[in-house]
Specification:
By secondary structure, the chain is mainly alpha-helical. It has seven helices and no strands. The radius of gyration is 28 Å and the shape is elongated.
Length: 202
Amino acid sequence: MSSSIRPTTIALATVGALATGFLAYAFYFDHKRRTDPEFRKALKRESRRIAKAAKEEAEAQGQQQRREIRKAVDERQEEGFPDNVEEKEAFFMNMVGQGESLQSNGKSLPLGVEKQEQKRKQRLVLTQGSEATHIEAALCFYSALKVYPQPGDLIAIYDKTCPKPVIDILAEMVAYDGSLPVGSFGGGPGSEAGGSSGAIDD
């Protein structure tokens, strides 16, 4: 009988000892924090060190994302854009549809463009979570801008309908491209009624 109780007793004693030790450390920590100036200074130094490390990590991630964005734009430009009206219209509708699908629920691209996008998606797999989806969505919207006759009007629509992370990436793509007359993001030039009718022309 006693042999069957012993493991439970040991486990309870262990848990009790750990709880007591934790409480004792908490009281000690609080006492040192209240009464020891050097201890408070050490805590502040550690807090600053952690904040600095977090800032440096965020900056490194931002730089990595910018490299991914620029590489995605370079690759899309190398692929080229359609020239005639019919191809432009089909390309525009395809890119907008893909972008909306990606930004809303992160669905995979349609089967017809999987091979074309495979290389880029393999590279973007290094980007964590929704960041890769945001870049892909922004790249689709950027591609649509390249064949739209009034990019500023389209930007005004994007600005009202796209999530901020996608808009921020798209803004960086447009700035990196430098050849799109889009005005300013956020209801700037080109957002008035009576602009483009939405048709794609040469």
